[in-house]
């Protein structure tokens, strides 16, 4: 059965692979982009582009309205957009701390709240998947802001899972490890080598490997999974 899916930050990296995974399952997929133009391969698959900066509540509201008008109430929300602004704590500005929290955590609250409202109204259950990070579990020098935002998503998601579970809306959190996207490309080569020494599988992940887990958590087969933190990280966070 085709569902109404909204992937936030779907034009690039992990989000892009996620849009492809859902579209190939036959779902009606909308995706947000903030900069640039929608990728042609996603348009070719029939996915609907919606321009939206998730730090602006008005843009979030109008994005949901646009999607609802085209494909009905959102039944699956994937909150994937995220940014990093790394620095050691003593050099980290208030601005960089707040910006990362705003995009990664506060905007996810905004998106999940809007999606929950319409899922409850539609009374058909639903799926919310939040994209966190292995860094939320392990911590990472230079990423106090990013780790705080991603760990916040775990507490947020689990609390929400308890609030809305009785309505058959699941909320799960995926924690990817280092994944081959623009975000990872911004890291110095030495740092990447250092991280990979800690990865039991010994390699970087690819966006499709994260997308397939997100897609599973949103599937009918995953109906009894909620509040789970699911690592897709080559083993780097095991034991955390
Ligand atoms: P990319 O930098 O490739 O993609 C980030 C996405 O977030 C882009 O689509 C971007 O949109 C969107 N975005 C950023 N800020 C906003 C905003 N204010 N409003 C709307 N959209 C926004 O990174 P990845 O694909 O790697 O990251 C996807 C998610 O996975 C992130 O949450 C990231 O933290 C997480 N993650 C990534 C890991 C990695 O190693 N790559 C590891 C662990 C977690 P646009 O480009 O249009 O601005």
TrEMBL record:
One of its GO terms (molecular function) is 3-oxoacyl-[acyl-carrier-protein] reductase (NADPH) activity. It holds the Pfam family adh_short_C2. The keyword Thylakoid does not apply. Its EC number is 1.1.1.100. The keyword Aminoacyl-tRNA synthetase does not apply. PROSITE patterns: ADH_SHORT. Residues 3-179 form the Ketoreductase domain. It is an enzyme of class 1 (oxidoreductase). InterPro entries: KR_dom, NAD(P)-bd_dom_sf, Sc_DH/Rdtase_CS, SDR_fam. Keywords: Oxidoreductase. Belongs to the short-chain dehydrogenases/reductases (SDR) family. This is 3-oxoacyl-ACP reductase FabG.
């Amino acid at each position: 059965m085709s569902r109404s899916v909204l992937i936030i930050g779907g034009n690039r990296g992990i989000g892009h692979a996620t849009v492809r995974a859902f579209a190939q399952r036959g779902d009606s997929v909308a995706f947000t982009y903030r900069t640039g133009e929608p990728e042609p391969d996603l348009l070719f698959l029939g996915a609907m582009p919606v321009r939206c900066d998730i730090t602006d509540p008005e843009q979030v509201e109008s994005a949901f309205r646009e999607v609802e008008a085209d494909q009905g109430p959102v039944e699956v929300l994937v909150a994937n957009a995220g940014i990093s602004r790394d620095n050691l704590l003593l050099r980290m500005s208030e601005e960089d701390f707040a910006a990362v929290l705003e995009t990664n955590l506060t905007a996810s609250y905004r998106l999940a709240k809007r999606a929950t409202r319409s899922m409850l109204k539609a009374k058909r259950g639903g799926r919310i998947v939040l994209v966190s990070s292995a860094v939320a579990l392990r911590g990472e020098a230079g990423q106090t802001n990013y780790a705080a935002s991603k760990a916040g998503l775990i507490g947020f998601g689990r609390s929400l899972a308890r609030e809305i579970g009785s309505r058959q809306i699941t909320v799960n959190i995926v924690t990817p490890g280092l994944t081959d996207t623009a975000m990872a490309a911004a890291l110095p080569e030495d740092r990447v080598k250092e991280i990979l020494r800690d990865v039991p599988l010994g390699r970087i992940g690819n966006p499709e490997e994260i997308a397939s887990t997100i897609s599973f958590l949103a599937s009918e087969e995953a109906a009894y999974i909620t509040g789970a933190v699911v690592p897709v990280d080559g083993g780097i966070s095991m034991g955390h």
